[in-house]
Amino acid sequence: MAPTNVADAIPDIERATLRKVIWRILPFLMLAYFIAFVDRVNAGFAALQMNRDIGLSAAQFGLGGGLFYVSYVLCEVPSNLAMERFGARIWIARIMITWGLVSAAMAFVVGPVSFYAVRLLLGAAEAGFFPGVILYLTYWFPRAYRGRIVAVFMVAIPISSFLGSPISASILNTDGMLGFRGWQWLFILEALPAVLLGVIAFAVLPDGPGRARWLTPQQSAWLQDRLSAERASVVAGEAAPARHLSVWQVMRNRYVLAASLIYAGASGASQCLSLWQPQIIKSFGLTNLETGLLNSIPFGIASVLMILWGRSSDWRQERVWHTALPLGLLALSLAASVATTQLLPTILILCLAVTATYTVKGPFWALSTEWLSAGAAAAGIAQINAIGNIGGFVGTYLLGVIKDATGSYPLGLLPLVVLSGAGCLLVLGLGRGRPRAAAAAQA
Q: In 3D, which of 265, 394, 399, 397 has the Cα closest to residue 329?
């Protein structure tokens, strides 16, 4: 149980330093991830017009949506290792500019083959951004803060759908302007911010506390000493089961593999719902604008609750149950979707499922970074995210195949029930046996 006067026990230099770090780097990273996710899933809204225009079946759309994760997975670990070599500022900027240009190219696909090709290129372009940022945050924040910080950063995902859904639906209404279809304008207009932010990243993202001119020498020294002490405690064996391993050893480490499977349930459902949910809601006979407004509701709820859940995890210094409970809720809510064919119950079920997929993220990534030493973090985080995102490919593709075969969206969600349920059981089983990082969790 955390002490009630924990805020009073925080030294002034810690409070001032971390407040400055939060306001200097977190808003920019959140905005960048907001744009990244908009560009990743806006095909879900474009599909309301695009699929008919270029002749995509549900299975073909699902395959193209899922192919993003194939190249994303293949390029994830090399991209994260490259960030360590070239520095966060250069590499994150490179990723953003590249994915913006490729996302704009989606406006010019003309059939299934070009759709598949550009989705593969988009996955390769964006690979490394998310795990790179998770790694980057470990350069700035002690472990005791990471649950809430990751949750705040990742709230950009549901916010991207909460705000992006009505925006994307509105852009579809530009249909015919300058001879372009609404879905083409959607890809072009929503890609431009990524390129602009990529250029700005060169100026606003220091590679680490030692290069942050906006920190005083005392603040920089305190933060570097604090993080160095935590890394030393890991080397001494106080925390992480995955210590100094080669890349191949990291990829085969049981904690990395287990964390990957655990994440696959939440990530698979998150990616699948973000891409398919507009079509699920539109299937009830709604207009594009009505679809956009209703699609935003689950993500608005998730945006608030994921921050509260991340704060709860940090306050209690508890990760395992804060990871397992949302995964269990996710499995139950997706399973319940087969029991209704009405709009209102479907929206309520989607609210539960979407909230579960996002509340799990902060505690899960805090838990995963506690399992990994500094030496294993770059490859380990990338590998967890890469393998976990295979769930995105599986869920997205199978939903399209099952929809074509049965005409049912809820039946297409059942594979994700199995994946998220398995993740829930695995985190509970592995969490009971792992060594506790007692010293690492203290302020």
A: 265
Tell me the chain's radius of gyration from C-alpha atoms. 21
- C-alpha span between 231 and 248 (Å, rounded): 21
CA–CA gap between residue 52 and residue 58 (Å, rounded): 10
pLDDT in tens, 14-70: 889 999 999 998 999 988 888 887 887 788 889 889 999 999 998 999 898 888 888
Burial class of residue 361 in the structure, from the number of CB atoms within 10 Å of its CB (0-12 exposed, 13-18 middle, 19+ buried): buried
The residue type found at 114 is: S
| CATH number of this structure's domain 24-216, picked from the four choices 2.40.50.40, 3.20.20.140, 1.20.1250.20, 3.40.630.30 | 1.20.1250.20
pLDDT digits (tens, 9 = 90+) for 88-132: 778 888 999 999 999 999 999 999 999 999 999 998 998 888 778
Say which CATH superfamily domain 243-427 falls into.
Answer: MFS general substrate transporter like domains (1.20.1250.20)
- pLDDT in the model for residue 372: 67
Decide if pLDDT at 222 tops 50.
yes
What is the pTM (predicted TM-score) of this model?
0.70
CA-to-CA distance for 281 and 312, rounded, in angstroms? 32
Residue 349 DSSP code:
H
Cα 149-431-420 angle, rounded to 5 deg: 75
- CA neighbor of 305 nearest in space, from 249, 231, 360: 360
CA-closest candidate to residue 273, choices 41, 109, 428: 41
CB 74 within 8 A of CB 393: no
Domain edges within the chain: 24-216, 243-427
Q: Say if CB 44 and CB 274 are below 8 A apart.
A: yes
